[in-house]
Amino acid sequence: xxxxxxxxxxxxxxxxxxxxxxxxxxxxxxxxxxxxxxxxxxxxxxxxxxxxxxxxxxxxxxxxxxxxxxxxxxxxxxxxxxxxxxxxxxxxxxxxxxxxxxxxxxxxxxxxxxxxxxxxxxxxxxxxxxxxxxxxxxxxxxxxxxxxxxxxxxxxxxxxxxxxxxxxxxxxxxxxxxxxxxxxxxxxxxxxxxxxxxxxxxxxxxxxxxxxxxxxxxxxxxxxxxxxxxxxxxxxxxxxxxxxxxxxxxxxxxxxxxxxxxxxxxxxxxxxxxxxxxxxxxxxxxxxxxxxxxxxxxxxxxxxxxxxxxxxxxxxxxxxxxxxxxx
Length: 327
Description:
Layout: E1 14-26, E2 32-44, E3 48-52, H1 59-66, E4 74-79, E5 82-83, H2 89-96, E6 99-102, H3 116-127, H4 133-139, H5 144-147, H6 157-169, E7 175-179, H7 187-204, E8 207-212, H8 215-221, E9 224-229, E10 232-238, H9 239-244, H10 249-256, H11 298-302, E11 308-311, E12 314-316
Parallel strand pairs: 3-8, 3-9, 6-7, 7-8
Antiparallel strand pairs: 1-2, 1-4, 4-5, 9-10, 10-12, 11-12
Helix pairs in contact: 3-6, 4-6
GO molecular function: ATP binding
InterPro entries: AAA+_ATPase, ABC_transp_ATP-bind, ABC_transporter-like_ATP-bd, ABC_transporter-like_CS, Oligopep_ABC_C, P-loop_NTPase
Protein name: ABC transporter ATP-binding protein
């Protein structure tokens, strides 16, 4: 991953490539929110990349910047080699057909005045595509005969998320960006939606970027996991590696907060993050996690750690990783 000291996938493997993505927002007079500060990642065709971190770490801002909503202030986003950050007007709208997003709150993301059929068919009608509403409703587990004529308020939260997924599928995308798609749902419904996404990924050949703050959810659905903190990448590794060999103190703090279960660290491995996250308006110097890190020293305040390899496929931005590099 150029710009962050990490390696790209083999040429031709990635469908989505993000380099040095930077997102800032104005926050009053002469103040700026540093939402995303130069993150990079690749997503291979057919892969699910999980992005995890606490609320406010920049996950959703990064996802929306990939969609160019809003445009990043710096960095590159390429879909199948096509640079999106320079596209405007019709060219950008056409490209967005191949890159669709599913939002956290399914009910508020649907127009309450329109029927399910109109909501799902809107995209294909705009682009003159075939009307495959019945097909995609069936694919997400809804009966077109009983669901298509109703409005969103007549459905449960889980059913509304199925409608949102159907709306995205109707445009036949290559990549689905799922922005905390199950966090607003009951646990039993969460499992149903996660299983549905896995089925749809296989059936339609989708590539997923899956955003969540719950490491247990991320581990179960992701091939690789990127850990973010205060707009920066901390660690990137296969899901199993991240759980079995967490190296960044922040990753270990996230795992330590998981209720007892298969992701729980031993008492010797546990690390806790002290205090509250700093403001993204005034992030700390050096390593942004240092103000809460039990391993921080003077070097962490003076020098920002670069992403470096710890093992094949395992990358970390930390001066004092919890596990040694593989020789």
